[in-house]
Amino acid sequence: MRLALLFAGLFAFHLSLAHADSPPMQVNNLKAEFRNGQTFLTWHQVPPANLVSYRIYRKTSSAPFTQADLTSDTLIGKASGISSLNLWASINRMQLSQQKPGQEYVMPKRVQYVIKEGDSPLDENTGVFVYTAKANESALYAVTAVIDKSEVRTVDAGLNTLSSPVEEKVEPVEPVKQNEDNEYVHWTDNIGTAQYPAMSSIPSMAYNFNISPPKGQGPYPVHLLLHGALFQYNTPTAQRAEALNDPNKIAVFADAPALSTGGRGREFKVKGITLPPIPSGAWYGYNENWGTGKPMSEGKVVPYHAQRVLWEMHWAEKKFNGDPQRLYVQGGSMGGYGSTALALLYPNEFAAVKSMIPFYRNPMSNWARRPAGSASSNPASSAASRPAMPSRSSSSDSSFMPVQPADYVAEHPDTDYPYIIIIAGRTDNITGWKDKIEFVHALEKNKIAYTFYWNAGGHGGGGAPVKEENAGKQYVDNIPKLDMDTIRKDQSFPALAHCSLNNDPGTVDIAVRADIRPPLDTPGVGDLVGTFNGAIQWDPKSIKDEAEQYQLALKVLDFAKNDKGTVDVTPRHTQAFKPQPGSSWRYEVKDQAGAVLTSGTAQADEHGFVTVEKMPVSKEGVMLSIIK
User: Fold this and answer.
1) What pLDDT is attached to residue 628?
2) Minimal CB count within 10 Å: which of 156, 377, 427, 618?
3) Quick one: which of 434, 267, 443 has its CA closest to 362?
């Protein structure tokens, strides 16, 4: 009998030790803090992180959570086992994309989120979920672990449920500063409020952005920067087309994670974690059913990304005393297209857009035009050997190209667009050349204000001189570029067209692989460095924009191929000058001495635009007057 009791005691002691050494099977230490329109939930996770996920429940009843409350009606979201890891601050997407198939990528650093400015980063064993308040009310929360696809449905007050409710209210959301490098994170929502629109298809998706703050009082121009594919919000400015750490500007470096774990047949491996799926859509948006479990075919594309970066821009505008009349968007490559798309779809948001080395038609057609010897130079090469690119347009999961720019402006010619600046390279075999010419022709036909610059560079910035067989020739780009900061939302500007001082864009396409590129002195290549409309400068201070009169001074710049020329001029983005369609107007052009160079009448077109055709311009300068 004594022996039996001894064995029973030893067995119970063994079980107690096993229980003490085994990891917890449920969430514990659930905490909640409400601030700036959002409730931040944190909890101690169940290891291991890569095998456990979490479900978050919320209810407005004051009664404590029970298992019966864990229903689809109270389920508000899910979280992975790495929800406190700032993945896109930890990964260099360019380096990850260059990993060989099957090779494991090692994160250069592991960055954890900061959820309250000044606090330490969350530790790796902490989970986080952020709920955006939609109403002024009290709420209780519960978090459960899902282990091997099976939910642990135990409910313990003070462990995985809150003992007391959180008082929530709708108010402006604030991003959380992460470090002294002015990097911020904000957690988006799938429903949103009037002050914080829906920016993701599922709640609590975190996005990074970086601010280059100004120094002084302001108000300052605000530049929204959209990076190219495989770049990211914290890509060093030295690797970008141009640096924007000017103390007299506010720069907002947005982020659009462009990797796809299964994209084009490739699976990326990151040591220590399972790379989660991410929505595509580049700088516009994606399917509202992504990540929800609902059929993608039943969802529509929502401009989540566009709404997000616009919110980030306006937040920075208010935070750092930005000038609401000087808001700009710019970007290169994928960001070059994205900046143009935003300007076309949200024309009232910006004064001007600068689109560098962009594509204006689907760039997939250019894969075979990549440099010989690169992983993707052979169109028959395996998909796995190609660099990662974001998913392209589809009705089901993304909207990589929400508009075809040339077609869009032709369909919406009367829209009051921002001023459009385009910079491209003649030998850019990644995004091509012909689509740029197609777009500027559409802009001219529809009397939309723009300036187009190009040089002999490739996709590395549309700015580097060509170093090939024609190295003895001069291809250096010495054309001064229009300063977009001089353009304002509350001031008009001219749309120029058919300028006689334009350079020759050529008829021979040299935006192909170097091994199949025609010699650069081939007849028909045209000018390797040039501009449309860039040879003419107008003086914003000279503008007189009144109901019955419009006045503007223009001159030819020194680099132009001739001292004089002609150009069609249409006042656009006018504030008071609003001619009725079909109305007649007198115009005259005077030189600096006041002598009339030409005069006549012009009739407003069906959109109310008055165009003075073939007006003379010179390096000395001229004054255009349009009078009722």
Assistant:
1) 92
2) 156
3) 434
Q: Which comes out higher in pLDDT, residue 574 or 245? A: 574
Rounded to whole angstroms, the maximal C-alpha distance in the chain is 125
Domain count, the chain: 2
What's the full length of the chain, in residues? 628
| pTM of the entire predicted model | 0.89
Q: Is residue 390 one of the residues assigned to a domain?
A: yes
What domain range includes position 74?
20-84+122-171
Do 452 and 510 reside in the same domain of the chain?
Answer: yes
What's the sign of the alpha-carbon dihedral 404, 406, 410, 412? Answer: positive
Q: How far is CA 589 from the centre of its chain?
A: 42
- DSSP secondary-structure letter at 299? -
Do 354 and 411 belong to one domain?
Answer: yes
Which residue would you say has higher pLDDT here, 383 or 535?
A: 535
Least confident window among 204-208, 396-400, 491-495, 605-609: 396-400
The Cβ of residue 288 has, within 10 Å, a number of other Cβ atoms equal to 20
Which of 60, 297, 76, 80 is closest to 190 using CA atoms? 76
Instruction: In whole angstroms, give the CA distance from residue 611 to residue 495.
Output: 9
CATH number of the domain enclosing 300: 3.40.50.1820
| Percent residues over pLDDT 70 in the chain | 86
Q: How far apart are CA 6 and CA 486, in angstroms?
A: 90
The amino acid at 298 = E
- Choosing from 518, 534, 550, the residue where a domain stops is 534
List phi, psi (to 5°) of 579.
-60, 145
Which tens digit of pLDDT belongs to each residue from 596-611? 999 999 999 999 999 9
Burial 62-78 (b: 16+ CB within 10 A, else e): eeebeeebbeeebebbb
User: Would you say residue 515 has pLDDT above 70?
Assistant: yes
Q: Which of 534, 553, 586 is the last residue of a domain?
A: 534
Mean pLDDT, the chain, rounded, equals 87
- What are the C-alpha distances in Å from 555 to residues 494, 541, 550, 562, 620? 13, 13, 17, 12, 6
Shared domain check, 273 and 152: no
Rg, C-alpha atoms of the chain: 29
Do 275 and 152 sit in the same domain of this protein? no
Under DSSP, the state recorded for 265 is G
CATH number at 38 reads: 2.60.40.10
pLDDT in tens, 7-59: 444 434 333 433 444 556 899 999 999 999 999 999 999 998 888 999 999 99
